[in-house]
Amino acid sequence: MSVIYQKEKKQFLLHTVHTTYAMEVYGGCLAHSYWGHRIANVPTIDERYACGLHGSMAPVDLQGELLYSTDLLPQEYPTFGSADLRHPALHIRYADGSNVTRLRFESYRMLQGKPKLMGLPATYGTEAECETLEIVLLDAVSKIRVVLYYTVFPELDIITRSSRIVNEADKSCVLERAASFALDIVEDDFTFVHLRGAWARERHIAMIPMEYGTVSIDSARGASGHSENPFFAMKKNDATETKGEVMGFALVYSGNFLGEASMDHYASTRIQMGINPLNFHWNLGPGEEFQTPEAILCYSDQGLGEMSRRFHRIIRKNLCRGVYRDAPRPVLINNWEATYFDFDQNKIVEIAKKAKLVGVELVVLDDGWFGKRNSDDCSLGDWKVNTEKLPEGLSGLAQRINSLDMNFGLWFEPEMVSPNSELYQTHPDWCIHTPGRERTQSRNQLILDMSREEVSNYIIDALSEILTTTAITYVKWDMNRNMTEAAGAEQAHRYILGLYHIMDELTTRFPNVLFEGCSSGGGRFDAGFLYYMPQFWTSDDTDAVERLYIQEGTSLVYPIGTMGAHVSAVPNHQTGRTTPLDFRGAVASMGRYGLELDLTKLTQEELNEISTQIQEYHRYEQVVHAGDLYRLRTAYSRKDAAYQIISEDGSTVLVFDFCIVGEPNGKVQWLKLQGLDAEAVYEDVETGKCVGGDSLMYAGIPVSHGCDLKTQKWVLVKR
Ligand code: GLA
């Protein structure tokens, strides 16, 4: 039993193998009492705060029920308007203009397994894998019920949370803010860890030591976006990659979000995450309910490294879906950086022929195959092949690729419309816009309103037609702009619900197609997307050094097997840097290895090297897919980086070492491996040398970092 209710203490205990999360019904409030290392007995709120939760001038609205003001009490789902004056999880405006909500515990229910979150992506699990606790809170005056969902995945050391708000009154109300979860920790020694970025430098790790006040990350871009990822962690100040306490939070959502940690004047830290309340006003009619997105919560007392591995396991096993969740994925070549818009059938076939020789299995045709699209200024929405470029049509090209014994994949940007397109001429009102206002363009395009049924049907039909009539086994689903002039305060979320519906429909209709997400590179790389598409184009920046920062940052939460990672040409198109081919290959093989360059321009020697890289990648693909990642040395030193991946069964270990900037005649360094079996002996596949697991972990492998841009790789097999 991982969910326990202790009646006499009014305590809920959520146990995973290594952690315990505890709540208590305290004077009618749902109080947060503990989250940390697994313990059998959790002290009650009175015991825990025996020396008092102090607060001069704290308002007490509890009519003698409670010892503490709710302004001090650590809570699970705080509301606006009454004695708790901190940032609320829930803020509702009622029909009469009032906005006081005061939730009190009403009931609970325990379920084996996990109910589906209708219309939203979420983790899933069998009755053997997880248990769910539903706690119902009620505001007796407004007749608002809130159902808090807690699902415990004991083996994965993960808890997921979401909330459902039900309006049982006979009048409408407006949700001004409805977080997915909130959590109060009466501690103050935290560092806020997040993933910030921009186009071509997504998800760089950043740390902010907490002080009194609020630290937050958000997006109001209509998508999770490049600048902040819907993930953050609260790391104890003394926690490191391998040691200490860390709490991580990942939102399973692809739209506007807010994640925040607020430390108050009593050194208590409130953590919450959910849909961004900025320009969010959701009308909840009588009898209606609102389901928030889900958040994945992870506690680790073995530092950020173990937190990441726990996130990776749940995302890999209980969030990603479909045949490609477990099946090997093809090595692909994408023509974007090889040709940009300047291609025709002959050019693609020419690249494909070379690709076949090096072992590529899938040829992906990127942007520019439809309408009149020879640059980014037209034709989005007109999903009809351009026969000037492809005289035999998509099917003809697919057949040519198939006759080379390779599969064919295609790029779409389904959510968009170019003003210069037939679709826009016919349906100028289908895009997101505010009447009377300019329709702001970005990359010469507008966003289709995916919340409208006729628009989503058009997209589903247009893509289905192509996927049915052409032998396509892969789709790159791109999205290249932020949302402006949203029509109203429900638009942004309704758009995401519409998008999820479309992706659900298409991935269900075409279960054997591998879908890869993309958004100007990795602008929407989030847990919501990974539910529909098991891999994502990590960044348009294909420079191997920049990719180390991006891929390491991404690995804080997302598994490396979800990251599209391609070997591209040098000098690199984004940074101008020239890196050796083996360096580029090693970085790409720590993700979903692929190619993105004109193979017809490479020497035979380079082609041979790529062919070897592909063979090697395939040999260890399963290790990358399902293994455990250890970040041995961080790339954020800007000097070097090292990573280790242990296969799921522990038998194979891949070790990558990268020297970014060499130190001539420098010191000897030892790479100390982690997570090995100390008693076992590991054989270096290349040299046949056998070394004990203890020696590899505590004495380490000697590495020299004398020259720039050098990489070394070891494959160790347990004997
Ligand atoms: C985006 C993607 C690229 C490429 C182009 C095509 O920028 O991230 O990979 O597909 O669009 O326009």
Written overview of the protein:
- The protein has 719 residues and is of the alpha+beta class.
- Helices cover 20% and strands 32% of the residues.
- Strands 6, 7, 8, 9, 11, 12, 14, 15, 19 and 20 form a ten-stranded antiparallel sheet that branches.
- The model has no long low-confidence stretch (mean pLDDT 96).
- It binds alpha-D-galactopyranose.
- The site of alpha-D-galactopyranose has 12 residues, from loops.
Quick summary of this structure?
The chain is of the alpha+beta class. It contains 14 helices and 38 strands.
Primary descriptors:
719 residues; 14 helices; 10-stranded antiparallel β-sheet; binds alpha-D-galactopyranose; alpha+beta
Secondary-structure topology with pairs:
Blueprint: E1 3-6, E2 11-15, E3 19-26, E4 29-37, H1 45-48, E5 90-94, E6 104-112, E7 131-139, E8 144-153, E9 158-167, E10 173-185, E11 190-196, E12 204-209, E13 213-219, E14 228-236, E15 246-252, E16 257-263, E17 269-275, E18 282-284, E19 289-291, E20 294-300, H2 303-318, E21 332-334, H3 336-339, H4 345-358, E22 362-365, H5 393-403, E23 407-412, E24 416-417, H6 422-426, E25 446-447, H7 453-469, E26 474-477, H8 491-509, E27 514-517, H9 527-532, E28 535-537, H10 544-554, E29 563-568, H11 581-588, E30 592-596, H12 604-619, H13 621-626, E31 628-633, E32 640-646, E33 652-659, E34 669-671, E35 681-684, E36 690-692, H14 693-698, E37 701-703, E38 710-718
Parallel strand pairs: 21-22, 21-30, 22-23, 23-26, 26-27, 27-28, 28-29, 29-30
Antiparallel strand pairs: 1-2, 2-3, 3-4, 5-10, 6-7, 7-8, 8-9, 9-19, 9-20, 10-17, 10-18, 11-12, 11-14, 13-16, 14-15, 15-20, 16-17, 24-25, 31-32, 32-33, 33-38, 34-37, 35-36, 35-38
